[in-house]
Amino acid sequence: MGNTKIIFNPINQYHNISEKIALVIKNFITDGKLKAGDRLPSERDLAPMLGVSRNSLREALKVLATSGIVEIRHGQGVFIKSHESQHLFKQYLDGFNIDKRKLHDLYCVRRVLETQAVEWACVFASTEELEKIKETLLLTKKELLTSEDPMLLLAKSDENFHNLIIKASYNSILEKMMPSLFEFLIDARLESAKKGRAFKSLEEHLEIADTLLDRDISKARLSMEKHLTAVERDLVEEKRHPLVQEAGLD
User: Fold this and answer.
1) Which CATH number fits domain 17-82: 2.70.20.10, 2.60.120.650, 3.30.365.10, 1.10.10.10?
2) If DSSP codes are grouped into helix, strand and coil, which group holds residue 39?
3) pLDDT digit string (tens) for 26-41?
């Protein structure tokens, strides 16, 4: 195990002891005391540390494994699989019962996060990284001339563009959270591409890329905010979109 100094205090009896055990381990991950790749003590050692039975501990580990937080490797032990924040966010989105208000709230959060991301990219990204963003967009524009599936190309370009900006922001939390959000919105990307929104997005992406290369923070933030606002507006107006149908807006 990578963190031998961690002290596991006994757990008071709880109406669902396995949930309490899982929560304690989650908190160690959230606090940074356990990191991806760390191995937990064996059941024989960990159960008395926590003051619980091995059966309760085993049940808690199964819950964590099902959630994708730990990986049980038979014959090797239990390993921390990834960061808790990423999985909690993904689990929330997986159970997201969309309606018009929540769709708006989701895009409000996205605007806050991605406008901040472009600001950080202006400050922290290298010139080479910013040039790569622009070059990737120009390549997409060129490939559109001969692409057999331009809609799919545009949808992938959209995802790649936003991921590159998140990466260029050099914020590790955003890098963990945003892929889950982007995955949740993949149907919207594909539908928007079919309806022509993605062609507009490509031009808006190029505008954002130019502001990044100029390292103009105010223009970069404004361009990203305008872009995401337009995307949300077009999504809501597209009555045939499955999210909007589910919200009962048609």
Assistant:
1) 1.10.10.10
2) strand
3) 878 766 788 888 999 9
Mean pLDDT of 199-223: 96
Diameter of the chain measured on Cα atoms: 66
3-state secondary structure 48-82: HHHCCCHHHHHHHHHHHHHCCCEEEECCCEEEECC
Question: Has domain 88-246 been given CATH number 2.60.40.3200?
Answer: no
> pLDDT tens digits for 101-148?
666 777 888 899 999 999 999 999 999 999 999 999 999 999 999 988
> Are the C-beta atoms of residues 190 and 146 closer than 8 Å to each other?
no
Residue type, 12: N
